[in-house]
Write a structure and sequence with these properties.
Distance between the termini: 51 Å
Number of helices: 5
Number of strands: 9
Radius of gyration: 18 Å
Structural class: alpha+beta
Mean pLDDT: 89
Order of helices and strands: EHEHHEEEHEHEEE
Strand order of the largest sheet: 2-5-4-8-9-6
Low-confidence stretches: none
Strand content: 25-35%
Shape: globular
Helix content: 25-40%
Length: 217
């Protein structure tokens, strides 16, 4: 059986355009940190390293399923669709409300979620293979770990990344109307579109940030 995040986890990867409140459980990711303009070469290199490793983890799992009956008996899924890249973003510089910060001041963590059954040992085995077959200086910066975001607001943004403030404004209004408030200046983006093959006006990006019950007036 193949796990397909688009079908099996629609509540977390919704295509609903309006804001919605969701609860995000702990999830495991391969991650790499960076700073600066995401349009630069360094950002692309970091994404490329993560993608190589993500597919190596997937292929290692499939190989173990095929070659080891004991391994196969422990897992409900013998294959899975690689999850989309995600980015957690903040900035080292303050900006006016509704105005995105200068891209050179951005601080980010790019990540790719892993199925719940991927263990540290499986990650390390795939890492060793990737290090041998596709060596890259940035591999040493990749880590594997869990993140639990808890209660969040999220929304599907369609269009250029530069137009995201309009969607964030809708999310902010929705949060306030429902008695919540934002916890911090960090937000998450989940990239459902391949920017290399999609026109900017057709990008599909899930925007998400953490919220808490608002303080009474």
């Amino acid at each position: 059986m193949k796990h397909e995040w688009k079908k099996d986890e629609r509540d977390l990867y919704t295509d609903v355009k309006g804001p919605a409140i969701v609860t995000i459980p702990e999830q495991r990711f391969i991650m790499i940190d960076g700073t600066g303009d995401p349009n630069g070469e360094d950002f692309g290199e970091r994404v490329g390293v993560l993608m190589s490793l993500a597919y190596s983890i997937k292929m290692c799992h499939k190989a173990d399923i095929s070659n080891d009956p004991d391994h196969a008996s422990r897992y409900a899924y013998n294959d899975y669709t690689v999850f989309p890249p995600e980015g957690v973003w903040t900035s080292s510089a303050a900006s006016e409300e509704g105005v995105p910060p200068d891209k050179g001041s951005l601080i980010y963590t790019i990540m790719i979620r892993q199925p719940d059954f991927i263990t540290t040992e499986m990650f390390e085995a795939a890492y060793a293979i990737t290090e041998k077959k596709k060596p890259h200086p940035l591999l040493k910066e990749v880590r594997f770990g869990g993140i639990e975001d808890g209660i969040c607001v999220q929304m599907l943004h369609i269009g250029s990344f530069d137009d995201e403030p309009m969607s964030f404004a809708k999310m902010d209004a929705f949060v306030k109307e429902n008695g919540y408030e934002r916890t911090d200046g960090v937000h998450r983006e989940i990239y459902l579109s391949d920017a290399r093959r999609t026109a900017p006006e057709r990008y599909r990006t899930i925007l998400r940030y953490r919220i808490k019950t608002g303080e009474p007036d």
